[in-house]
User: What shape does this take?
Amino acid sequence: MQEYLWDGIKRDRLVWLGDMHPEVSVINTVFGYNEVVPKSLDLIRDRTPTTEWMNGISSYSMWWVIIQEDWYMHHGDLSYLQAQQSYLAGLLKRLATFIGPDGAEKLNGMRFLDWPTYEDKVAVHEGLQAMMLLTMQSGQRMAQYLGDNELQEICSQAIAKLKRHVPQTSGRKSPAALLSLAELRNASETAEKILIPGGPKDLSTFYGFYVLNALAKADQTDAGLDMIDRYWGGMLDVGATTFWEGFDLDWTVNSGRIDELVPPGKKDIHGDFGEHCYIGFRHSLCHGWAGGPTAWLSRHVLGVQPMAPGCSKLSIDPRPVPRGLSNAYRI
Assistant: This one.
């Protein structure tokens, strides 16, 4: 949070819109209003015409829409939302053109959810289908706040079309969580069959946030706490003081700690792992998209969520959990 929301500090130092959703969720619950959020949202908006995707990734343009609603719900700045109306309408109208006659998304550009699912086309389609529905639902609500009846109708028609298509399952946690949150799949069944089995396996530091949210939707808060303890706690156990861009518990096997010189015969948990854009020492060890548990604890354990713009109406529903974390989900 330095002037803008920077990501990939060791590499590009850019504003990445998908990363911003968990980051802004954390800022809203920890810091409240901070000018780096609208500055970052506006920077990418001004550099990306609605004929292109933010950061070249279709889902990242959708995250821009969802962040706008989250920001408005927390801070209630209608004048700021009104300043987005033209761009918001153009983007949502363009997104609506990428829905096929059968209701399936047909997005172009880089098709991306998170790195573990990047090469799994079935999983990516699942996630983008859910993202499209969540985005149109968010757009419809903002159109209502803005009094834009035309945009509201465009979003309403898109929602109806998207609900016709429920993708085949890949069995992957990231898209399953989004489908649950979009109510394209039953939350309890998804949690029991896909999200809970294997514990933190197939989790990513980015989409782990949405897995946690889907577990809370299924009333499985203790399973979410257990995943936080084991997965994010796994980073802390090897000396992390900030959460990382990517992480797999398997990396900890026969590896040294991050805060010590690597002992002979041990793996370097920083330099020997990673994939895609973060192989070896390119791996960011302070990555905002991994901060989701902070916002999740506020929403689903403390239980505080805005129910009307500017937090003028709040839901306060604490979820007490037993002392100590349950072992029921350990495999």
